[in-house]
């Protein structure tokens, strides 16, 4: 029998069938009951009836779980084929995409140029106060965020990630979290009301910490359930979406790898309707706390994000082979230094930024050449039409479109 939504069965079958099906789902061998409970939500209002969150490990879920793990292995294998000097800049490109998507989901305006500048400041350890510094720093060190073991860990994530972007009226007014009322509105209707008081928030977050450590539940299921429950609690007036997605990303980064983890918001942003519908369906009284379809949707989003990275890597690795073959087959034997530097610039152009400009200081770092020697090499490449000078102060070069097209476009 096909596993259908309880809300659908309620209308398709009679009440006795619905109750029997609910009982079967909660008590079958493939059922997993969590210790987390929520209030139902109907017609813009929280109701007194509570539901224990549960899911059934149906075949579709198991297949998706395996798919995510296989995709993660593919990503690791593909990353291992990249030259060392490409790996971190490529990850930084993904960070910028992810941060931009996270902001877009929340309706916060940011540009990739702005985020790139913030990331650059962080890499230079500059202490300039800029928007999104906390966001970019958290992504940059996503695989170093430790497991959440204390209530204060949630506030620390908030402080590091979004506190600088929060309006004065939305700053937490409790000891660690909000103590007042908060709701989510889609512009027309109220779609969610957060847990009612700071005391209840603390109680619920303690339950969440315990659940995150519960190894009876598969890691991917556990992390996605935790993501929903954090959003359900809504411990802050603002910033819950961003902190909630970073919460799940930090656990995914340790369980899978950092590339899969940081693509989650990017995938959500491409299918926001699916994401929000999945969240909003769980507290429906007819759903009775069944999270099976929510888990299916979240793993599909995660898998789609992974596949985007896999496609990008596979295409660019094919381009890398063309670049390698070009430098092997063409006569660069009397210009080995020029060939080596041009190859590096071309790789970075393909994997990181098609419009990349290369400051002389960056080229010195990549080539391990003195400024004098580097200027000689770049003058030769410039005269031959392989690169062009785009800025004099500071001196910056870019690979010419004509050269790139001659290699990559047949």
UniProtKB/TrEMBL annotation:
Residues 149-297 form the Fido domain. This is Fic family protein. It comes from Fictibacillus fluitans.
């Amino acid at each position: 029998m096909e596993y259908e939504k309880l809300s659908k069965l309620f209308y398709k079958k009679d009440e006795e069938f619905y109750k029997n099906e609910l009982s079967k789902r909660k008590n079958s061998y493939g059922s997993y009951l969590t210790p987390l409970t929520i209030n139902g939500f109907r017609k813009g209002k929280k109701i007194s009836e509570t539901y224990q969150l549960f899911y059934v490990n149906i075949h579709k879920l198991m297949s998706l779980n395996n798919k995510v793990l296989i995709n993660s292995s593919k990503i690791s294998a593909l990353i291992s084929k990249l030259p060392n000097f490409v790996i971190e800049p490529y990850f930084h490109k993904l960070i910028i995409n992810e941060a931009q998507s996270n902001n877009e989901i929340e309706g916060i305006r940011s540009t990739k140029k702005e985020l790139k500048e913030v990331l650059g400041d962080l890499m230079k350890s500059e202490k300039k106060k800029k928007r999104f510094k906390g966001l970019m720093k958290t992504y940059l060190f996503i695989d170093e965020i430790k497991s959440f073991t204390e209530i204060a860990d949630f506030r620390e994530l908030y402080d590091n990630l979004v506190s600088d972007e929060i309006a004065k009226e939305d700053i937490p007014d409790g000891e660690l979290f909000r103590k007042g009322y908060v709701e989510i509105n889609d512009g027309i209707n109220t779609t969610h009301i957060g847990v009612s008081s700071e005391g209840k928030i603390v109680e619920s977050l303690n339950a969440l910490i315990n659940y995150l450590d519960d190894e009876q539940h598969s890691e991917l299921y556990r992390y996605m359930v935790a993501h929903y429950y954090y959003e359900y609690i809504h411990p802050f007036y603002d910033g819950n979406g961003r902190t909630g997605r970073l919460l799940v990303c930090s656990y995914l980064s340790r369980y899978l790898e950092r590339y899969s983890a940081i693509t989650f918001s990017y995938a959500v942003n491409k299918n926001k309707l699916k994401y929000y519908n999945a969240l909003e369906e769980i507290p429906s009284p007819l759903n009775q706390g069944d999270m099976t379809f929510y888990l299916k949707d979240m793993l599909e989003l995660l898998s789609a994000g992974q596949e985007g990275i896999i496609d990008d890597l596979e295409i660019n690795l094919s381009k890398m082979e063309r670049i390698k073959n070009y430098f092997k087959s063409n006569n660069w034997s009397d210009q080995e230094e020029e060939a080596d530097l041009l190859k590096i610039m071309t790789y970075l152009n393909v994997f990181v930024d098609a419009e990349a400009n290369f400051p002389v200081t960056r080229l010195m770092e990549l080539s391990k050449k003195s400024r004098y020697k580097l200027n000689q090499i770049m003058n030769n490449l410039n005269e031959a039409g392989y690169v062009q000078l785009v800025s004099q102060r500071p001196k910056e070069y870019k690979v010419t479109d004509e050269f790139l097209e001659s290699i990559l476009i047949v």
